[in-house]
Amino acid sequence: MGCGTSIATEPQGNPTFKTPTCPLAMKAAILIQGWYRRYMARLEMRRRYTWNIFQSIEYAGEQDQLQLSGFFSFMLDNFTHLSSSGPDLISQLLEPVVDPWLGRDTGDQLIPVSESYSGPRISFPLSVSDTNTLLTAFKERQTLHARYALQLLWETKKLLKQMPNIVHMSTSYAKEITICGDLHGHLDDLLLIFYKNGLPSADTPYVFNGDFVDRGKQSMEVVLILFAYLLLYPNHMHLNRGNHEDYIMNLRYGFTKEVMQKYKTHGREILQLFQDVFSLLPVATVIDSKVLIVHGGISDQTDLDFLNSIERHKVKSVLRLPRHSLEQLDLSRPYKQATNLRSADSPRPGSSRSRRRGPRTPTKRKRGLSHQDSASSSSSSSSSLCSPRTPSCLSPRPCSLSPSVPFSADVLHVPFLDSLSSLPPPSPPRVEQEWKQMVDVLWSDPKPQEGCSPNTFRGGGCYYGPDVTQRLLLHHGYQLLIRSHECKQEGYEICHGGNVITIFSASNYYEEGSNRGAYVKLGPDLVPRFYQYQVSRTTRKLTLTQRVRAAEGSALRALQEKLFSHRSELLTGFLQYDHNNTGCVSVSEWAQVLETVLRLDLPWRTLRPHLAHLAPDGSVDYPSCFHYMGPGPQLPQVSRPVTPNLAETVVRYRTDLEIIFNIIDKDHSGLISPDEFRHTWRLFSAHLGVALDDGAIDDLARSIDFNKDGSIDFTEFLEAFRVVHKLDKKDH
Amino acid sequence: MVSEVHKRIHNAFQVFDHDLNKTVDVRFPPVPEDMLLTAFEVLDQQKKGYMEPDELTNYMRQGDEPFTQQEMEEMLSSAVDSDSNVVYYKDFVSMMILDGER
Lengths: 732, 102
What we know:
Strand content of chain B: under 5%
Radius of gyration of chain B: 18 Å
CATH class of the domain at 544-731 in chain A: Mainly Alpha
Shape of chain A: globular
Structural class of chain A: alpha/beta
Low-confidence stretches of chain B: none
CATH architecture of the domain at 544-731 in chain A: Orthogonal Bundle
Mean pLDDT of chain A: 73
CATH topology of chain B: Recoverin, domain 1
Largest sheet of chain A: 6 strands, mixed
Radius of gyration of chain A: 27 Å
Oligomer: heterodimer
Strand content of chain A: 5-15%
Number of helices of chain A: 27
CATH topology of the domain at 544-731 in chain A: Recoverin, domain 1
CATH architecture of chain B: Orthogonal Bundle
CATH superfamily of the domain at 544-731 in chain A: EF-hand
CATH class of chain B: Mainly Alpha
Shape of chain B: elongated
Largest interface: A-B, 45 and 42 residues
Helix content of chain A: 40-55%
Distance between the termini of chain A: 78 Å
Strand order of the largest sheet of chain A: 1-5-6-10-12-11
Distance between the termini of chain B: 40 Å
């Protein structure tokens, strides 16, 4: 115990007796101890809220994605045939060309590889030397030639077609099976796992539980290595589908972009093939008929026998409702939900909602509760219908670029989304049941409370309680559910009384130092053993303080951007308390407005010093929380603060706009033609419900000087939204 | 009546709620920087302006609630100057205070 020279080894309790240190020095030492412990306690608090910010914003982003895919679905099914002119760009990208089971030409026409290509070369059928070649090349940051990438994908597709939806494995063939969670393009984590645990082989079988791609910069390499080992050891390497093995998710979270950047010529072809391959991935693995492994989890509707019988490849993206159910929709229905949803959102004086809550639990979330009664399609509590039925309700926010309409009135007037959510629930046909089974398995999260409820935080899937888990395990005679899907600080977490394990294998997921990664091994005794690790990108070892500070800084910046992008709603909220227009509200009013508008369930009082200044009387100077200005050039301040200004709108929709831009910009050159721009604008103005006729769009297109080179980059594209905003204002 | 009592209790607590986050830390009251510095100076008996890691460890391992091994390592990892391998406590204190006030 302790340091050799320490003299504090006497029995405790009598400080004057036990130490020859003079009383003054003793007092000084105790003061320093107390001070340091207080500092560390506060550091721990900061670490926790930083985590909360990252997680809240991550899930809010998923809701946005669901809303955007609602937009795609709408465009695909309704808008595209309304626009008579021009090619239908969206549907070209989004619709699969051929049913994967029919199998296009199986890579007969191979792309020639030039002599000058210095990257890895592989031959089929793959051998151990080929996978070694790939590992070595990817470690050196080389890219695999499109010819080999396509060939690898063709072979993978051929193999996956023979796989059942639920794969069964046995520990009797190997001593232990290793299960890994989300990798999200973190190649370094995958290589570290292989280094620590051994390469996949008959002796070292692996299950990778989905979310191989997106977010990280080396998704392509990660997924190619996994597929290569799948081809090499089809009986000892198993890949479950995750919610990111989905081409619509890939549009937002980076995989599409990464592929297009790495494969300029053949990128689109590769992406098409990925659509097929992803939809052919098995959805579950069962070990020894005792352990169920799925990416997200289950719901009270999950029926593994039914799940095993569905044609999984038909669910290209769980973000796309089966087409026929969209055709039943009557888009002319009025937006009857709007008023009651809004009233549920408006801040209520005297409400104690913003009081600090205990540990975060899913059911405490208020977000989206208001829509449950209107959007739930069945009597069951586990409605998992996400896009496009519910998203407008999940993240209520103004969707209009028009400054002339007060946001509170048009907050839900995104026509298609609302009309979808106000439909009477049709009896779900089989296609929809299949789709729902998939959504629940890929998107759900466990919760500590009993029962099953819609996953309003993510906007898709459900929350399942310990009773739901228990029932399913009992029904099948299983003893354990292993799932991934959620980042955990230690890389893994055990819940539901030991019945559920979450395993997450991407370390430093939110930020350098934010979390460890882990994998779990199961032997014939089926007792899980966890292995943790953390990839270090810097040679310098950061102190705890430095790590917390770095993560906190980027979390707060993300949060400030969030505040800025909801500026007008927040100002309206503040003004309800600030009758005399002093620019100040009390701390609790400030916190309440923030939570009511943003619904991020964060400790706002604790965060206050980082987000807003105090006035001399101790109240919050609320305009100070918008001092952050969005990316890009300095934007003009609006004179009337309550109307949503364009800077705010652009910040809020920046990600959506970028995705749309990337779709239109088919060759990913970073430039789009004026014609494509007009088309985009038409789509987007319809999405936002902004009335703007073709003439006005053409005026807009003309009014922008495209450098006389006939094309627009993304900055000009964003700029165009500002210009239109002004034109629009003039009209009214 | 009850609400009046609640309000008074609330006001009483607020005096100690330094961060206005409805939390009163009863264990470790905040220590002003100058007092903290004085404390280090008391321990730095030779008035060197710095302390050896062992010297600091010695003191922190005393008292009713001595530092654990882990606490000590964590403290030294941010306190020890990597070039000279000693603790320049003045720099350490101002760095920590600055960080704590962010």
